Each structure stands twice: as structure tokens, then as C-alpha cells.
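[#protein-structures] MJ: dropping Ankyrin repeat protein here for a structure pass
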Amino acid sequence: MRKIILGLAALLMGLSSSPALAMDAFEEARQSIVAGDLESALLGITMGAFSVNMQDEDGLTLLHYAAQKGSLGAVQALLDRGADPAIRAKSGSTPADMTTVPEVRAVLSAAIAAQ
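AK: finished. C-alpha cells for Ankyrin repeat protein:
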């Protein structure tokens, strides 16, 4: 949460163009998704610290992590904010490929079909 707040402070000061700050905020959001803290995870996106479709070094987005966790609420919240369910990681996996939860897979498949 601290890195998200620092990233948001930098954004307000006009320093948001730093890829390092965006990656720090993304990593903090990723950890929040994994921990089940959706509110903190969405804060950086809402404040514009990083794109909802930002990818880490493996090509994974927050939607990939939410799907892997099986969090229907996080998946839906990210889709509502413009997350692209068709983005493939470097491994070739989409978020739908990374879940074992049928409801999550159904929502992601429907989102891809609606594109």
C-alpha cells in the first residue's frame, strides 16, 4: 500500500511518466490481488498510476492474477475498469487459461466473446 501511495503522490507531482514508479504500483496491486485486498489493488488503477492492462516481466496482467486466484469479484472489477481478457502472457496463457473456477472462466470467456 505504501508504494501505491508514493506512486500516487508522484502522479500528483507530475512525475507519473516514470516506468519504475508504475511498475512499483503494479507490483503492490498484484500483491494486493493475491492477498485478496481488492480495494487496495484497484487504487492504483483508479488514480491512474498504471494501466489496467499493464503487464509484468512474464506478460501477466492483474486480470491473470485475479483469475489464477479464482476471485470472481476481482475479475469482474478489473473487467469493469477495462481489463482486456484476451491479453496473452509470454507463456501464451490468457486469464481464462489460468483459472480452475468455472464461474471465473465463464465470465472471462463471455468478456472475450463480447469484444
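MJ: nice. The chain has one domain: 2-113.
AK: one more thing. The chain has six helices and no strands.
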